[in-house]
């Protein structure tokens, strides 16, 4: 799968500029590449009550799904630090809902040209998935 990761990472950095993180001061950006080539970006949105906080990754996924996209190819995730930022467990579960193994890549970047690519199997093995919900 040939994907222009650098472009996706740059979109994630642009989204990070909108991060609303007055409590943690931990700013995160994400850019989600859909199967049709469209890109949805997201930032983290915090709340004074803390628990309503939404991560950048889920913001991007919810924006995409709410506009009719359900097939995704990759997500780029960036933070402020000079280190790789891995998605939290809740975001991994959210991604697993839509991202089929082998067709989705998680791009962890610490600059537009320094990144590592992970599969869902690597970052979220033995997970609960839609296939586990068996209805008669
Ligand atoms: N956060 C994200 O947006 N994505 C991650 O992958 C890790 C954590 C946010 C949530 C919260 O606003 C802040 O970073 C500190 O946890």
Question: What can you see in these coordinates?
Answer:
This protein has 136 residues and is an alpha+beta fold. It has a single domain, classed as Cytidine Deaminase, domain 2 (3-Layer(aba) Sandwich), CATH 3.40.140. The protein is built from 4 helices and 5 strands. The protein has a 5-stranded mixed beta sheet. The termini are far apart. The model has no long low-confidence stretch (mean pLDDT 95). Tetrahydrodeoxyuridine binds next to α2.
Give a concise summary:
The chain is an alpha+beta fold. The protein has helices at 5-16, 56-65, 89-98, 120-123; strands at residues 29-34, 39-43, 72-78, 105-111, 114-119. The protein has one domain (5-132): Cytidine Deaminase, domain 2 (3-Layer(aba) Sandwich).
Spatial strand arrangement across the major sheet: 2-1-3-4-5
User: What is the structural class?
Assistant: alpha+beta
Could you state the CATH homologous superfamily? Cytidine Deaminase, domain 2
Shape: globular
> How many domains in all?
1
Bound molecules: tetrahydrodeoxyuridine
Assigned CATH class: Alpha Beta
Poorly predicted ranges? none
Helices, by number, come to 4
Share in β-strands: 15-25%
CATH overall fold name: Cytidine Deaminase, domain 2
Distance between the termini: 36 Å
Mean pLDDT: 95
Question: CATH architecture, please?
Answer: 3-Layer(aba) Sandwich
What structural keywords apply?
136 residues, alpha+beta, Cytidine Deaminase, domain 2, five-stranded mixed β-sheet, 4 helices, 5 strands, binds tetrahydrodeoxyuridine
């Amino acid at each position: 799968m040939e994907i222009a990761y650098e472009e996706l990472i740059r979109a994630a950095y642009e989204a990070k500029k909108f991060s609303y993180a007055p409590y943690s001061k931990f700013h995160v950006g994400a850019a989600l590449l859909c199967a049709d080539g469209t890109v949805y970006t997201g930032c983290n949105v915090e709340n004074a009550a803390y628990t309503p906080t939404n991560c950048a990754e889920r913001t991007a996924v919810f924006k995409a799904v709410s506009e009719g996209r359900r097939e995704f190819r990759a997500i780029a995730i960036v933070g402020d630090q000079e280190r790789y930022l891995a998605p939290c467990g809740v975001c991994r579960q959210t991604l697993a809902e839509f991202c089929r193994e082998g067709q989705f890549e998680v791009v962890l970047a610490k600059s537009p040209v320094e990144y590592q690519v992970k599969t869902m199997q690597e970052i979220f093995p033995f997970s609960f998935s839609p296939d586990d919900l068996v209805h008669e």
